[in-house]
Specification:
The chain is an alpha/beta fold. It has five helices and 18 strands. It has two domains: about 130 residues, Ribosomal Protein S5, domain 2 (2-Layer Sandwich), CATH 3.30.230; about 150 residues, lpxc deacetylase, domain 2 (lpxc deacetylase, domain 1, 2-Layer Sandwich). It is about 20% helix and about 35% strand. The strands form four sheets. Strands 11, 12, 13, 14, 15 and 18 form a six-stranded mixed β-sheet that branches. Strands 1-2-8-3-4 form a five-stranded mixed β-sheet, covered by helices on one side. A five-stranded mixed β-sheet has the order 5-6-7-10-9, with no helix packed on it.
Length: about 300
């Protein structure tokens, strides 16, 4: 008789460099399957409760900021908790919407300003997380969607965002940069109806242009990053073309970031079509603020 893998808790640990630290760590536990309990992802920082998706209304209590990654904060002073970079892990929970998970991110530093925890970058994608879950949790389930009859259009400093209702989750993401005659462009169009549609998004690695990386390092940022954490793109005329893991990998990674910024609040997707030009975590947050009220109904 085959043992039901949903019956017993399982725990995995992931460690690697993060954006700011040479080593970061997260433990993830999948709890016993119980159809009478509401599914949830409970996020902890240093063993202390931070946020749980079964109280999505509590999400707006978290402070939000961006520093090349999404940063969430709760509490004040010595009791403050800061969680950075959940956007590569959060979309993986879309695959198992009926399950309950506990995510405990180890504190990277503690002071009189509280505890700061940053998730490991792994290879800069969601694939290491997904692969481990797939082997141990089982086959992905049917995705969870919610209606979001939103019509919106607004400009960004160098781009725009458009939202319209859809029958699933669809996104067209365009990146365009032109610096001193050096042009960088990547574009991807993804329609997500089922778990299979997420794989090429999960595989896309984070990236940074070489000139941006050099400037960040001079400013004392990205202290934990090395060549194993993603793609370093050189858009100079003499540069060798990068080898991508999937087609239009930079734009697909922006879609991964988008999914993470939307799904951290609740592991479900809004039924919308998004057209985004040169977006980022701040514009993703604005999208979330427009669709999340429908997820809470």
């Amino acid at each position: 008789m085959k043992k039901d893998s949903r019956k017993s808790p399982r725990e995995w640990e992931f460690s690697s460099a993060s954006l700011s630290y040479g080593k970061a760590n997260v433990k993830i536990e999948v709890q016993e399957y119980n159809p009478q309990l509401e599914p949830r992802v409970e996020w902890r920082v240093g063993g202390r409760s931070f946020y749980s998706t079964d109280c999505a209304k509590c999400f707006t209590d978290l402070k939000f900021s961006v520093a090349r990654t999404a940063i969430y904060e709760s509490g004040e002073g010595v009791h403050a908790l800061t969680l950075a970079s959940p956007e590569h892990l959060a979309p993986v929970f879309l695959m198992w919407p009926s399950r309950r998970f506990v995510v405990d991110v180890t504190c990277n530093e503690e002071s009189d300003k509280g505890c700061v925890a940053e998730l490991p970058l792994m290879d800069g994608s969601a694939l290491p997380f997904f692969s481990e879950f797939r082997r141990n949790v089982g086959a992905p389930e049917e995705l969870a969607f919610y209606d979001a009859p939103v019509h919106a259009l607004w400009d960004l400093p160098y781009g725009s965002v458009k939202i319209t209702p859809s029958e699933a989750f669809e996104v067209e993401y365009i990146l365009e940069r032109n610096e001193n005659g050096r042009v960088f462009k990547s574009a991807a169009n993804v329609s997500i109806y089922s778990a299979e549609d997420l794989y090429n998004v999960f595989a896309a690695r984070t990236f940074i242009l070489k000139n941006e990386f050099d400037e960040a390092r001079k400013a004392g940022l990205l202290g934990g990053v090395d060549e194993s954490c993603g793609l370093l793109l050189d858009n100079s005329p003499e540069a060798v073309a990068p080898v991508f893991r999937v087609a239009d990998e930079p734009a697909r990674h922006k879609i991964l970031d988008l999914l993470g910024d939307l799904c951290f609040a609740k592991p479900a997707l809004p039924k919308v079509r998004l057209e985004i030009i040169n977006g980022g975590h701040l514009s993703h947050r604005t999208i979330l603020e427009k669709v999340l009220p429908y997820a809470l109904q």
